[in-house]
Amino acid sequence: DVKVTQSSRYLVKRTGEKVFLECVQDMDHENMFWYRQDPGLGLRLIYFSYDVKMKEKGDIPEGYSVSREKKERFSLILESASTNQTSMYLCASSPRQGNTDTQYFGPGTRLTVL
Amino acid sequence: RKEVEQDPGPFNVPEGATVAFNCTYSNSASQSFFWYRQDCRKEPKLLMSVYSSGNEDGRFTAQLNRASQYISLLIRDSKLSDSATYLCVVNWNNYGQNFVFGPGTRLSVLP
Q1: What is the longest distance spanned by two Cα atoms in chain B?
Q2: Chain B contacts of A43, Cβ < 8 Å?
Q3: CA angle, corner A25, sides to A14 and A82, nearest 5?
Q4: pLDDT tens figures, B7-19
Q5: How far apart are alpha carbons B74 and A105 in whole angstroms?
Q6: Which of B5, B27, B35, B95 to mutate to test the interface with A (most CBs of A within 10 A)?
Q7: From CA A80, how far away is CA A65, in angstroms rounded?
């Protein structure tokens, strides 16, 4: 089974703090993604990466950055956390081998910014 | 216009009922289609892929109509454990990169 793990299930931070969310997958997938999920808005793509050191902006990249130094690890960084970044953050991975496979998600990190 | 739209729900149905969810997508170049299930406060998990010829997995049947850009999910003999949010997902890229999620439809199966 594909396993995607995230560093924390719950996180509480203060406004202005720098926040790191880590994601690791063990299936040698090329693609990795960061989403946030909010009630009524569904899943929204923040950033994705299709290879080591490569990144692409998603639909809502403002206020976030990412890092992919190793194939299995994709980090999401909130440079200066704000209260409107309180959300559920979901990491996902997928193989780059045609269109028949899909994404596999980690358990999510529920971030609260006070 | 949203790229993937779903019935707003919620759907409240009794055990044993048959329930159908609909989904429409706007990008005619979409390549692959999926239904995900998401339990409360959990991550989305793949329920089933949707193939052009339609496919069935036990009590679940998925249909795709490319001409109408429409996907459906039918659940027969609903169980309490089917209560969840069902997400329609469309991918229009051959490299597994462009997944677009619908907002989801919430299902509650009542005893």
Answers
A1: 43
A2: 44, 87, 101
A3: 15
A4: 878 999 999 999 9
A5: 24
A6: B95
A7: 11
**CA nearest A25: which of B91, B101, B43?**
B43
Average pLDDT value over all residues in chain B: 91
Q: What is the Cα–Cα distance from A32 to A11, expressed in whole angstroms?
A: 21
- Nearest chain B residue to A35, by CA: B101
Counting one residue from chain A and one from chain B, the pairs whose CB atoms sit within 8 A come to: 65
Q: What is the CA radius of gyration of chain A?
A: 13
**Interval A104-114 mean pLDDT:** 95
Q: Tokens for A2?
A: 């594909």
**What is the dihedral angle through the alpha carbons of B57, B58, B60, B63, rounded to the nearest 10 degrees?**
40
> Could you tell me which chain A residue has the CA closest to the CA of B32?
A99
Nearest CA in chain A to B101: A43
Four-CA torsion A96, A97, A98, A104, nearest 10 degrees: -60
Q: State the pLDDT at residue A100.
A: 58
Indicate the residue of B45, B87, B91 with minimum beta-carbon distance to A99: B91
CB contact under 8 A, B95 and A50: yes
